């Protein structure tokens, strides 16, 4: 009979993603994760097999959470320009999934995670384009909004406050 997990995998994954966000992927080892979670390093080895598998599992779980958040944001955002802004705002909210956004693609050498990131970007751009009326012009505007939004997410923590998403939506949807 398998033993009950004291600390669920999702809690371990969240800690690993926090470590990547704070210190980079090199900070993640069985020993550092063991210290952060209270689990024994051999327990982590038994669960994941290798450090690479542990990191990959944590990033894959982060993508699953982000995809679920994206689906919820799509369902809630109206099909108009304000809906495009609301959709991106919901994805950029202070949630664990949004906080992970810049770190989920921590290692684009992994083709599975790279492909997942690309599919997610395409999904987000399609959802924005739909809210901007569809068509080639809306798709182009959506790609620009996505890039601007990602730039905003990157620079906001460093004090970059000059860009306002709603102004970009107005310019590109008008």
From TrEMBL:
Keywords, comma-separated and alphabetical: DNA-binding
InterPro entries: Homeodomain-like_sf (IPR009057), HTH_TetR (IPR001647)
Stretches assigned to the HTH tetR-type domain: 16-57
Coiled-coil residue windows: none
Signal peptide segment: none
MF annotations from Gene Ontology: DNA binding
Protein name (Swiss-Prot/TrEMBL): TetR family transcriptional regulator
Species assigned in the record: Gemmobacter caeni
